[in-house]
Each structure stands twice: as structure tokens, then as C-alpha cells.
Amino acid sequence: MAKVVSRMTPDLITQSYVVEAVKGMVVTTRQLMRNLFGRKDIVTVQYPEDRRPYPARARGKHRLMRRDDNQVRCVACMLCATACPSNCITIVAAESADHDIEKVPSTFEIDLLKCIYCGFCEEACPCDAIRMDSGVHALPTVTRKAQKTAKIDLLSLGSPSIASQGGQYRAHDHEGTQHGRSGH
Amino acid sequence: MHLTGNPVLDVILFTLLKLVGFVFVFVMGMATVLTWVERKFSAFMQNRIGPNRANIGNIRLGGLLHMIADPIKMLTKEAFTPNTPNPWLFRLAPFMAFVPALVVFATIPFGPGDLQVAPLNVGILFIFAIGSLNVYGAVLGAWASNNKWSLMGGLRISAQMISYEVAVGLSLCGIFMIYGSVDLQQIVIGQDGTWFGIVPKWGIFAQPVAFVLYLACAIAENKRAPFDVAEAESELVAGFWTEYSSMGFALLALSEFIEVVLIGCLGATLFLGGWQIPWLVEGTGVLAGKMYLFGNLVPHLQAHAWYLVVAQVAAFLIKAIVLIWLQLTIRWTLPRFRYDQVMRLGWRIMLPTALVNLVVTGIALMFYERF
Ligand code: SF4
Ligand code: SF4
Known about the structure:
The complex is a heterodimer of chains A (about 180) and B (about 375). Chain A is an alpha+beta fold and about 180 residues long. Chain A has a domain at about 65-165: Alpha-Beta Plaits, CATH 3.30.70. In chain A, about 25% of the residues lie in helices and about 10% in strands. Chain A contains 6 helices and 5 strands; from the N terminus they run ααβαββαββαα. A 3-stranded antiparallel β-sheet of chain A has the order 2-3-5. A two-stranded antiparallel ribbon of chain A has the order 1-4. Chain B has one domain (about 80-370). Helix content of chain B is about 65%, strand content about 0%. In chain B, α3 packs parallel to α11, α9 (about 210-220) packs antiparallel against α11 and α11 packs across α13. The longest helix of chain B has about 40 residues, at about 5-45. Chains A and B meet through α2 of A and α1 and α13 of B. Bound molecules: iron/sulfur cluster (SF4) (2 copies).
């Protein structure tokens, strides 16, 4: 059913626009004065000095997780590199010394200039090896050259913190069963 | 005032003094400060802080140093010239916009007597004649840019400025009829005194409709929001100055601010009594006018108490600044008009209103003189 929208027919005073314009100017001037004397309503955050905390689920710079025994969790399955829409993950796989694990990455690089921080890599990873919860975002640089270093070698960088082991593994922990991989 | 003793040299020196003092110090200074004030002003209106990062050491002065930082940035940037068949025209255009905007200040009386750079008896006509040259700068710049956005902006600007030129001229005709002159100094002298000892005999009280029309049309001619269809960031990238960078851009931007100052000064002269201080002193204007009428180019400021002259110049500057403030408030309050709305407003509302105002003024003047 069609809804009849009643059109506003402003009177001549409103249509002349002068009164309405003055009303608007009163509002802006009031705001100007409030902020000029006392800065009451200013919402600007002076960014580099004052920061607001990122939301808990913000996607920041990537980090690679480690196992409890400090090995890299990543098994070089290439799922993240495949999922990545900007093709910025470079992984070179190597054989693992640990007989339980088939492969480990020998290099794991992400070109942060290409990365769009979509989080697909994090989603794709079957081992919870790559996370974007570091809370650090890639910093801008003044020159293009400096950005060449934007490719971060996550392995050499090491993981900033050791993630608590999640998912299935944690459940085993609680049951008191020891998984074969731990305890070297 | 005797500066050297040689009358010819005196005239030249005094003119130069006025030129530097008014046009370069006040007008240019004001335009430069406006680049900062406008950003700060709009920021506070929108609950932001505005520019405050430019600093020397730890001294920031609330962003005042942006006035210095901006020109440095502009000067060191690349002066890009687009691939155009008319690179010279492209370079010339900003100057064609900038120079007329400055020249018109010559006829503005900023104080009594000879405190006017060029005492022209065609005053306001000169301002219109030179002021409308401004459009050439914008149009030629737009055309020489060899860019369709610029061209669209240029087309719009020529249409808009020509239409509003008509309305602004007609809106001021009432003032000329009342004060019987187009000489700005004479108009200011005519605004001396008060009605019934309360209301100053200012143009704004004699011609309130004309004041609103003047302000609206002048802002439209200056192509600033709410009439910024020529720049129209949301439609035309940046309109006629899309291709400008570096100092070319700075000149265009600065000429816009100079016009803001011009609208303020002209409005103060025509509608707010110029340098007249209401209630305080009456008849000083007449005295100054007499001195001027006798054709003494070398000013007789000694006839005035010097502090009175200073107070009157200050009064003029304050009135101009109030109008500049009003323009900034309008610019940051009202939403912009669509292009067809601008044209309709100009031809179908502003122009008829100005004409009706003219007729009413004429009838009123006739009765006033009869009875
Ligand atoms: S966040 Fe997206 S773009 Fe960046 S590395 Fe991961 S998958 Fe690639
Ligand atoms: S980070 Fe995860 S998805 Fe990427 S290669 Fe390693 S295990 Fe596979």
C-alpha cells in the first residue's frame, strides 16, 4: 500500500531562508564560543600523544605463535598464502627436525605494504599459528624506500608473546592427558 | 601632514604610506590570518581542534604558525603545469584573479578625509569594474587547465558571477539613491549622525533588505560556500583550480580570502557607516568631507584631533572584521546550494527583490523629499 508522504509547506518566513539561516548561525556560534572558551565539546583525540585503546578484536600486525615447547606452530601448509587475497605471504617450507611434525617454514615473510589486513590468513590457518592480535599497526614511513623493510620476517622477528594454546589441545591439557608432541 | 616639505613628494609618500598601511598590512595581513582563522573557526564549530601542529621548538601558539608553515610548503612544492596548449595562460590566470582583488581596495575609505588610497569620485563603479575582471582569471585558468572538471567549474563560475553581478549592483542602487553619490567617501559622510538620537544613520538601517541581498550576492560572487558550485569538491574535484598547485594555488586561495576582506570592507563602508563612530562625535564627517571637497590632496589631518582619527580608523577596521566574521559563520553554517538552485536564486529571487527594493526606495525618497 502506498504511503502518502505529507510534504512540508513552509511559510513565507521559513522560505525566505533568512530567519532559518540566522537560527543555524546561532547554533554554530554557540558551539564556537563553548569550544573557544573551555573546549567543552571537543572530541578530537590528539593521536600520537593520546591514544585510545584498540578494540579487542582489532587486526594489527601479524605474529607467529609458538608451541609450549617453543617450536613454531606453523606447519607450512600454505593455507594462509593461498587464502591471502593480496598474495603477500611468502613461505619457504623445510623439513622439521621433530619427527611428529612434517614441515616447518624456513622463512615466513609478509609484505605489509601489500597486506590489506583482511584477516583471511588468520582464518585459514588450521593450527592457530598466525594471529593478528598484536595490537600494533604497521607504521607509516616518510620515504618509499623505508617501506621496503615492510616485509617482515616473522620467524626472525620471533613471536612477541607466546599464545596460550587454544582449542582441542587445551581441552586435552585439562583432562590431564599428555600429548605426544610436548615434553622434549 | 608634512613629511618632507615638498608638496609633490608629500602626496607620493603619503599615498605610499596609505597603500602599505591599509592594503599590505591590513588587507594582506587579514587574508593571511584568515587562512588560519577559517580552519580554526570551522574546527571549533564542529567540535574539533583544528590545525595546531606547526611549531618552532615547543612553541605552537595554537596553530598560528601554520600561517608561516603553509607558505613555506607552497613555495617548495612543485609548480605543476598540466599538458596544455596554453601553459602561459595557465600561469597567468592566478595573477589575473589576484591583482584585481587587491586593486579595488584603493577606493575604500578607511578613515576620514584623505585616508583613502585613491579618492575616486566613481568609487563603487571602479570597484565593480575591476572586481568583475576577477572572473577572467578563473575562466582563463579553467580553460587553460585543459581539464574537463576545470572547464565545468569555469563555465559555472562565469554564469554565476555574471548573474550575481547584476543583483549585487542593483541591491546597492538604493544606497546610491539615498546618499546621492557613488563616491564611497561621500556615502560614509552621509551616514553621519543618528535618527532620533538613537539609531545611527547607517545604510543597514535605511536599507535592511539591500544589506541581506548584498551579503548574499557578494558571497555568491566570491564563489564560497554556500555558493561554491564553481569549486564543488563533491562534484568537480576542485572546479577551476583542480590543476593548480604550489603558488598558483596559493594565489587563487589567497585572492578568495582577499575578497572576503573586500566584502567586509565594502559592506562596512556602505552599510555600517564606514569609519563613523555613532553617538560619540557628530559632524566630524562633514568637516572631513569639506576638507576633501576643497580638493586639498595633501591631507589636513591636523584639523582633527589625532586620537579621533585613530579611533575612526579603528572603528572602520572593527566593522570590517565583524562582517568578515559574519561571512565565515555563514560559510560554515549553511549547506551548499545545487547549481540550478544558485541560478534560480540569483535570477528569480535576488534580482526581483533588488528591483522591488529599488522601487520602494524611490517612492519613499519621493515622499521624504515632498513632506
Ligand atoms: S591479513 Fe589478509 S592480506 Fe594480510 S597477509 Fe593476511 S590474508 Fe594476506
Ligand atoms: S601460518 Fe598457518 S596457514 Fe599459514 S602456513 Fe603456517 S600453518 Fe599453514
